[in-house]
Amino acid sequence: MRFSLSTWNINSVRLRIDLVAKFLESERPDVLCLQETKCPDDAFPLKRFKRLGYEHVALNGQKGYHGVAIISRLPFASTDVRIFCENLDSRHISVAFAAEHTSAPLVLHNFYVPAGGDIPDPELNPKFKHKLAFLDEMKSCEPLHPQGDARHILVGDLNVAPHEHDVWSHKQLLKVVSHTPIECEKLLAAQHQGGWLDVARERIALSDKIYTWWSYRAADWTIANRGRRLDHIWVSPALGPCVQDYQVTRDARGWERPSDHVPVTVTMEL
């Protein structure tokens, strides 16, 4: 069966619900994972998603900050939320799909990793210290280590651009949070420990630039094109041969009142 999944840091789901609807009406992924929803669960726009044909929603939200959601046309067999760093911030949610809906059991994790602030020094910046600890916990988290034929997907705004060409200038960003060597090492260690395949870099050469985020601070983001690849889709080895396509919806950065991130989509044949 064909299965498509998109991930998008929407930077307030209520503020940008029309943009989400525009994307869903155009692309019709089976599942949409959102980060930074900035919305408590009881205020999430469920009715709008149901009118769009997405009747199954798993939420882990909070007022004004963070928040993750999984919106699906397929029903969930179960949902789960994990706490990282003993912090109740809403940064993770996972769901499992039953075999009858995805040809075999499938587990999906949706993450919003801490951004880390502006100073890349854990001694001077508690936010950066939190980010590094969060990445360490991702590495050691047993549910993020799929074994054998287990079919798992991990997506989200991981807030690290780990490779040289995941940023507009490797040299100029080495001391900028999201591309410092320690962050890159820790994210790649978490990926390696879980045996995850980075879909983007499995399909696009490391020598090619890929961006999913462009700063609001740029006067004209299209001309400057100073992007970073902060949004990721990883799959367990069992799903590697199933991947058919990978797309970054770059145009969404130019929509009216956009998020600074754009949707990223994987298509698989399960």
Radius of gyration: 17 Å
Shape: globular
CATH class: Alpha Beta
Number of domains: 1
Query: What's the CATH topology label?
Result: Deoxyribonuclease I, Chain A
Largest sheet: 6 strands, mixed
Q: Quick one: how many beta strands?
A: 14
- What is the average of the pLDDT values? 97
Question: Low-confidence segments, ≥5 residues, pLDDT <50?
Answer: none
Ends distance: 5 Å
What proportion of the residues form beta strands (DSSP E)? 25-35%
State the helical fraction: 10-25%
Strand order of the largest sheet: 3-4-2-1-14-13
Supply the number of helical segments.
8
**Which second-level CATH architecture applies?**
4-Layer Sandwich
SS content category:
alpha+beta
Folded structure, characterized:
One of its GO terms (biological process) is DNA repair. It comes from Rhodopseudomonas palustris (strain BisB18). InterPro entries: AP_endonuc_1, AP_endonuclease_F1_BS, Endo/exonu/phosph_ase_sf, Endo/exonuclease/phosphatase, ExoIII-like. This protein has a single domain, classed as Deoxyribonuclease I, Chain A. Strand 7, helix 4 (about 125-140) and strand 8 (about 150-155) form a beta-alpha-beta unit. The protein has a six-stranded mixed sheet. The chain is globular and about 50 Å long. The longest helix is centred in the middle third of the chain and has 15 residues, at about 125-140. It has helices at about 15-25, 45-50, 100, 125-140, 170-175, 180-195, 200-205, 220-225; strands at about 1-10, 30-35, 55-60, 70, 80, 90-95, 105-110, 150-155, 195-200, 215, 225-230, 230-235, 245-250, 265-270. It has about 270 residues and is of the alpha+beta class. The mean pLDDT is about 95. It is built from eight helices and 14 strands. About 25% of the residues lie in helices and about 25% in strands.
